[in-house]
Amino acid sequence: MGEAILVTGGAGFIGANFVLNWAEVVGTPVINLDLLTYAGNPASLDALRGDEGHLLVHGDICDGELVAASLREHQPRALVHFAAESHVDRSIVEPDAFVRTNVQGTFTLLEQARLYWSQLDEPDRSSFRFLHVSTDEVYGTLGPQDAAFTEETPYAPNSPYAASKAGSDHLVRAYHHTFGLPTLTTNCSNNYGPLQFPEKLIPLVILNALEGKPLPVYGDGGNVRDWLYVGDHCSAIRAVLDRGQVGETYNVGGNSERKNLDVVTAVCDLLDELRPDAAIGARRNLITFVKDRPGHDRRYAINTTKIERELGWQPAKRFEAGLRQTVEWYLNNPAWVDNVRTGGYLHWIEQNYAERLAR
Questions:
Q1: Which residues of 20-57 are buried (b: 16+ CB within 10 A; e: fewer)?
Q2: Is the pTM of this model over 0.90?
Q3: For a tag site, which of 89, 137, 288, 312 has the least CB within 10 Å?
């Protein structure tokens, strides 16, 4: 077994940030398995073009033969699993894709990793890790005064997306307890930062506001999320991979609870400062409240005590600084934005928001 790691979904938002960060901080080889669907963007990895330490493999995590061949050929010391369908709105329209990728795909990876791991000799067998990246949405919703989610919070998923991630979490747990596979699970809060596909709240608002388009806000805008800068998430995953106790789950959060409406207004104010446009005026005036999505969880919050206490990790980026850095990144990378804003993406935005705006 070598020093390489196998990363799934490493051309997506969090995965690409992790791969780039890994290359900069750790420097050992990365085998990057990604299906390159709408949210998997090879342009996000342009900085590694020609780098012999990064191999991008175009393939499906549900393809057991491909996964097995990748493990056999590259002999990774760890598998870090990001690949997932992750947009709640899409899961309402097309839940079967979420079950396939998030449940069946995770099962395929676990089964092939188990077969690979079981054939390793010591000490490689003991040092191998399967790290599964999940979400706080598996825990359901919180009331305004409820304590934040801990690793012991019962699962109560409320969307097809959250349910599919809950199913994948349970499979990971079962493969550790039944087969002894050395697994680790992280459950993170809402990520934001560079390279995020512009269907998620922050990049959607940035790009719409730049063009003077309506800024759709669900319901009354009072839904609360904890915001985690993607670079902090990457450092947390490295800490769990390096020092996490096998079989354990670690919640990863940014300690930055914000109402959605407050996030949107903060983006508007930053753009008014950094890219004023007299024809558009104050971007806050573009905010448009739209019909809420079904089953919209009211509040998420993460208690990070365990990862702080056991692994010495805590988020380094304050939300205000991270948001400014994110807005500046989108302003400075119009070519990347143009690359991802395909006809398929525009069709999705039209389908999801135009109907809500019309009501």
A1: bbbbeeeeebbbbbbbebebbbbebbeebeeeeebbbb
A2: yes
A3: 312
* Average pLDDT taken over every residue of the chain: 92
Residues forming beta bridges with residue 186, ordered by sequence position = 133, 250
Q: Using one digit for the tens of pLDDT, what is the confidence trace for 46-93?
A: 999 889 999 999 999 999 999 999 999 999 999 999 999 877 778 788
Q: Residue 137 and residue 25: Cα distance in Å, rounded?
A: 29
pLDDT in tens, 310-326: 999 999 999 999 999 99
Say how far residue 128 (Cα) sits from the centre of its chain: 23
Per DSSP, helices labelled H in the chain are 13-25, 64-74, 88-93, 95-98, 105-118, 124-127, 160-179, 201-210, 230-243, 260-274, 305-311, 319-332, 334-340, 343-349, 355-357
Q: Is 299 helix (H, G, I), strand (E, B) or coil?
A: strand
Residues with catalytic roles: 136-137, 161
CA distances from 261 to 40, 215, 277 (A): 28, 10, 22
Task: Find out whether 202 and 196 touch, Cβ atoms under 8 Å.
Answer: yes
Task: Quote the CA–CA distance of 83 and 216 in Å, as a whole number.
Answer: 28
In the structure encoding, which two tokens stand for residue 277, read together?
């446009």
Question: How is the chain split into domains, by residue range?
Answer: 5-197+227-255+301-318
CATH fold of the domain at 5-197+227-255+301-318: Rossmann fold (3.40.50)
